[in-house]
Design brief:
Number of strands: 3
Order of helices and strands: HHEHHEEH
Strand order of the largest sheet: 1-3-2
Number of helices: 5
Mean pLDDT: 86
Length: 79
């Protein structure tokens, strides 16, 4: 997926998808979602998302807990 000019490099590196910076900023489907929210919003289970790439991020509410897994909404919608 690539629309427009100027690729968002981090999205390419983490999720393997080339998305223009403008699209990343202006289109919710190119945002990220936590594993828990993804499972609830799209009625997915662990096996549905086990092969999807994710980005780990420190949990802002509980820094001592395991890192959050963030998934690209675009890829969750296709799962």
């Amino acid at each position: 997926v690539f629309i427009g000019t100027g690729a968002h490099e981090k999205t390419k590196d983490v999720f393997g998808v080339l998305i223009c910076t403008s699209c990343k900023s202006n289109n919710p489907k190119f945002g990220t979602m936590t594993k828990t929210d993804a499972k609830e919003a799209y009625l997915l289970n662990d096996s549905d998302i086990s092969d999807l790439p994710f980005q780990e991020h420190v949990n802002p509410n509980k820094p001592n807990w395991a890192p959050m897994k963030l998934y690209l909404v675009y890829q969750l919608q296709k799962a």
